[in-house]
Amino acid sequence: MDETSEMRALSDVQTRLQARFPDLDPEIVEAAVRLAHSQMTGRVRDFVPLLVEHAARDRLAFAERDEPAARDDLAERRARRRIEA
After folding, report:
1. How far is residue 78 CA from its own chain's centroid?
2. Is 72 exposed, middle or buried (0-12, 13-18, 19+ CB in 10 A)?
3. CB–CB of 60/68 below 8 Å?
4. How far is CA 3 from the centre of its chain?
5. Residue 33, Cβ density class (10 Å: 0-12 exposed, 13-18 middle, ≥19 buried)
6. What is the pLDDT of residues 2-28, one digit of tens each?
7. How many angstroms separate the CA atoms of 42 and 65, rounded?
8. Given a cut of 60, is residue 61 above it in pLDDT?
9. Can you tell which superkingdom this protein's organism belongs to (predicted)?
């Protein structure tokens, strides 16, 4: 997998994870994907996006479960964005 294809695949991973964890701030989802990707090293890169998705999904599941106040704050920020738009 070339670098452009990998970046496109990681963008798709981020989109899927944002849909799966809609209550989490998109910046948290992006950070989870970037962290998971930074931990993937080695010569074989074909499965990196899949491995990144699994690692980031697991991190986000904990973030979603453990931070109810953050979810309330996120909902408030999203409501304000809709009003401002």
Report:
1. 17
2. exposed
3. no
4. 19
5. buried
6. 888 889 999 999 999 999 999 999 999
7. 32
8. yes
9. Bacteria
Residues 6+ apart with CB under 8 A from 49: 6, 9, 10, 12, 13
Tens-place pLDDT, residues 24-37: 999 999 999 999 99
CA 27 to chain centre: 8
Tokens of 26: 């998109």
CA atoms within 13 Å, Cβ hemisphere of 85: 6
Tokens 């106040």: give the residue: 69
